[in-house]
């Protein structure tokens, strides 16, 4: 991933692949993270909203015939082709400023779940290829 920001109810990504299509990447990402999130909620009995979250995931799954048991992610994406340096810079700024505009932090790199930390020279959990 070149840039990312995980918010409380959505995710922003700037990604590229020379091997897979964007739709394949998004499908696999959603499938993997859905099962991980669902399993984590089920296994952690100290989560005060456990029953409600499982009920919501399962309700969403039943409402969509493409699912078997549950649904966490929305079925659609909003991809934007970044075909110029100007668009890349604009989207990178938008992505990293999301937690600041939401009022969660004062600076983008203060948000733990963002590549802005690496762009600011701080350590992070994910390896990143910086966009220059």
Any overview of this molecule?
This protein is mostly helical. It has one domain. The protein contains four helices and two strands; from the N terminus they run ββαααα. It has helices at residues 22-43, 50-62, 85-101, 116-119; strands at residues 3-6, 11-14. A two-stranded antiparallel sheet has the order 1-2. The chain is globular, with a radius of gyration of 17 Å. The protein starts with a strand and ends in a 13-residue tail after the last helix.
N-to-C CA distance: 14 Å
**Uncertain ranges:** none
Domain count: the total is: 1
**Proportion in helices:** 40-55%
Number of strands: 2
Helix and strand succession? EEHHHH
**How large a portion of the residues is in β-strands, by DSSP E?**
5-15%
Report the sheet with the most strands, covering strand number, pairing sense and barrel closure.
2 strands, antiparallel
Principal-axis shape equals: globular
Order of strands across the main sheet: 1-2
Number of helices: 4
Structural class: mainly alpha
How large, in whole angstroms, is the Cα Rg?
17 Å
Whole-number average pLDDT?
A: 85
Which helices and strands, and how do they pair?
Blueprint (H helix, E strand, L loop, with lengths): L2 E4 L4 E4 L7 H22 L6 H13 L22 H17 L14 H4 L13
Antiparallel strand pairs: 1-2
């Amino acid at each position: 991933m070149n840039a990312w920001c995980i918010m409380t109810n959505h995710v922003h990504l700037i990604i590229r692949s020379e091997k897979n299509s964007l739709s394949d990447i998004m499908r696999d990402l959603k499938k993997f993270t859905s099962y991980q999130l669902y399993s984590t909620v089920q296994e952690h009995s100290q989560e005060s909203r456990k029953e409600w979250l499982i009920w919501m995931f399962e309700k969403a799954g039943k409402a969509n015939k493409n699912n078997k048991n549950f649904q966490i992610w929305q079925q659609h994406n909003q991809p934007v082709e970044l075909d110029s340096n100007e668009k890349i810079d604009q989207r990178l700024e938008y992505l990293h400023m999301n937690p600041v505009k939401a009022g969660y932090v004062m600076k983008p790199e203060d948000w733990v779940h963002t590549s802005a930390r690496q762009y600011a020279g701080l350590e992070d959990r994910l390896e990143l290829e910086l966009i220059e």
